[in-house]
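G., the chain you wanted modeled:
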Amino acid sequence: MTILKVRLTFEEDILGMSPNSKQVYTDYIADKSPDAATIEEEVAAVGVDQVTENAMTVFPRENGAPFMYDYQVKGFFKDACGMLARVTGKDENGKKKTAANESSKLKAFKKVIDGLIFVYPRKILFNFDGEIGNLQRPLRAQTAQGERIALANSETISAKATLEFEIKCLSDELVAVVKEWLDYGALRGMGQWRNAGYGRFRWEEIS
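Predicted structure as tokens:
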């Protein structure tokens, strides 16, 4: 078993990932959380007002301080592994390699991340200067009735914010692939609207 202690430093603003609706959040946690006893705790951490639009995504709070849940980091791992596993390469004979990187070697990666990789603490506090901001952007979708446009709204924490947490790998062989996912954060980022470059970060091991 290996424990990595890491610090993420965001190079772009990061957008909140938690829905700002008690009902939406309760339904989501009831469906995704392995421990139903945490539902009330997580809904309370969002601290939403009934008049706020459901489309807004926010950062949960603890005593007013924004944080990220451990499973949101694991969600980033799953996204990174799924994308990196698509990378292909060729051997010296010009044939396609079956494993171009560490992620493509990992079979049933979602089960591996769920059962063999753990993130601590449960609530990972952001360290940053300034105030929490707000970003609105249009969302466009093609439907049977034509193009539809809606307004999405997210809380933001500015670049240079940091997160510090531990990653426990029950198998030492998983350390290399976890580092590969963290490296991918400089390209993919985490949080809402990653495709626009938000949430990109660099990482380092700390003692």
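The first strand starts at residue 2 and ends at 10.

Shout if anything looks off.
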